[in-house]
Amino acid sequence: MSDPLVSVLIPCFNAGRFIGETLRSVLAQTHKPLEIIVVDDGSTDNSAEEVSRFPEVKLIRQSNAGVTTARNVAVANCRGDFIQYLDADDLLSPDKISRQVQRLIGNEDCIATAEWGRFYSDPSKTLFVPDDTWADLSPLDWLALSRQDGLGMMYPAMWLFPRRIIDETGPWKPELARAPGEDTEYFTRAVLKARQVLFCAGARTYYRSGIGGASSSKYFRGQVEVHDLCERLVLGVEDSERMRIGFAKSWQYLAHMSYPYDRAVALEALERASALHPIKIKPGGGPAFKVTSAMFGWKFARRLQKWSGRP
Question: What's the CATH number of domain 6-208, 3.90.550.10, 3.40.30.10, 2.102.10.10, 3.40.190.10?
Fold first, then answer.
């Protein structure tokens, strides 16, 4: 497999202002050959027109069905030996795919990950902060270290998968199409199918932030579903203190984020955390939030934040 075909699969919904930059980062890849597929998921903006400016890109249009269905359609229509998932607003460094392909050839029972950094408008200002997952690790060690602070990062751009791992992982769950963190559930399944997670130093991915979020009941309820599925997957393989601590922290982060927007979710998340491990974490915030939390409790401080118009 000296020149394996890599399929880059991009779901797109109303990303017309970003998709051109994303596709240019793909076309700049030093690895060839590439197959680039964009599935336009019923966009109502100029996304399809922007994609049509790139003749090298295969555009598939469908009625709006959600991101997981769009990714399943892309997989069904691709031919690659390796699969690169990519969101329509994120970017890749030019040698990202080539560095990962080099490590995966002969290791098709492994998956590759990359450096990642967050940016808001200017990719040149992306900050890359190494963490404990930036190393070759067993799947369970990677999952434990990724969630050791309760958060972790598992977004699409950072991975490269041999096709056999994709086939063994199975499809994206259509029922999670509108659940935030649907990629965390899928990539947890994928990591558990690998022999090893190979870190590729110098392969860089750029995560676009600051383009909007959500705080609705459906949003938070979707996160409960994703948290629950991931917990069942991981603890079904290793029910250990390190895994329970990580998930207990994750549930507490969800409680801190959802309160007071959805108090039922916050209460459920706190109960799930307590059932796993007694460890406690404090919600983050600025100096005023910390003082208010210390005096009146974090829930009161969060209510003040909401009343002041802050998320």
Answer: 3.90.550.10
